[in-house]
Design a protein that fits this description.
Blueprint (H helix, E strand, L loop, with lengths): L14 H12 L3 E4 L4 E2 L5 E7 L1 E11 L6 H6 L1 E12 L3 E2 L7 E7 L4 E7 L7 H25 L4 H16 L1 E3 L2 E3 L6 H8 L3 H13 L4 E3 L3 E4 L5 H4 L2
Antiparallel strand pairs: 1-8, 2-7, 3-6, 3-8, 4-5, 4-7, 9-10, 10-12, 11-12
Helix pairs in contact: 3-4, 4-5, 4-6, 5-6
Length: about 230
């Protein structure tokens, strides 16, 4: 996982990241969010996750036109949310809008801390700006792998591919292998791979029976060590 908060190979001191956090506090650009709280965002700004994890989702809204008045029709909005991935601590993200879809960010865990700034304000930290751009390039590469995993014909292959990518990116070691440190509902997984919650539950059972996944600490998804080569090298 590419993390801006970790020590870089060029030996950039931790003080660079700390100075940005101090700047964020001084300019009221840093905020702590509760679990599942929506993070206010707008295009053109750069966001940095300092602690916790952010869940990215997309939604498509459709207005129900069966009401008798415009006001009642506007109140009857059906929104379907689709899970698009995580942004972990030390990673940047930005929100791009494209009608009719809306991209949103939500705090996935409690006490998630996010800092935001304008892109030109990164000029105050030239080396850090290069690291941010490198982090976005890394994310683009991961997105291509994500699309490849979700392009599998069989649903069970898409499911296993998604879980493998998430744990490769964010997994933490355990005696069972590597586990995803955050929970994901079966409905959220289903929205990512184009399947129903019931289908995901059934296929998760199959994967567990085959020993391809396990449950760590009663509720966290875990993959055997041999299934997570990238995580082993982090």
């Amino acid at each position: 996982m590419y993390s801006l908060s970790s020590q870089s190979e060029t030996g950039r001191p931790f003080l660079t990241w700390q100075s940005i956090l101090d700047w964020g506090q001084q300019h009221y650009r840093i905020r702590t969010f509760a679990k599942d709280e929506k993070i206010p965002t707008r295009p053109g700004l750069l966001y940095l996750v300092q602690r916790g994890a952010v869940r990215l989702i997309s939604s498509e809204s459709q207005v129900n036109t069966t009401g008798k008045s415009l006001a009642s029709r506007l109140r009857q909005v059906n929104s379907e949310e689709n899970f698009l991935g995580f942004v972990g601590a030390g990673q940047p993200f930005e929100i791009v809008t494209s009608s009719p879809f809306t991209l949103e960010s939500v705090a996935h865990v409690d006490q998630t801390v996010v800092l935001w700034m304008y892109w030109n304000e990164l000029d105050n930290w030239p080396h850090f700006r290069r690291e941010v751009l490198e982090a976005f390039r890394y994310q683009n590469q991961r997105h291509l792998l994500w699309l490849s995993a979700l392009g599998q014909r069989r649903t069970i292959d898409r499911l296993l591919g998604l879980l493998t990518m998430l744990i490769q990116e964010y997994g933490e070691p355990s005696d069972q292998g590597y586990y995803l440190p955050w929970t994901l509902t079966h409905a959220q997984i289903g929205s990512a791979i184009g399947a129903t919650r019931v289908t995901v539950t059934r296929l998760m059972g199959k994967l567990r029976q085959r020993g391809m996944i396990s449950i760590y600490n009663d509720h966290l998804l875990c993959l055997p060590l041999e299934s997570v080569p990238m995580a082993a090298s982090k």
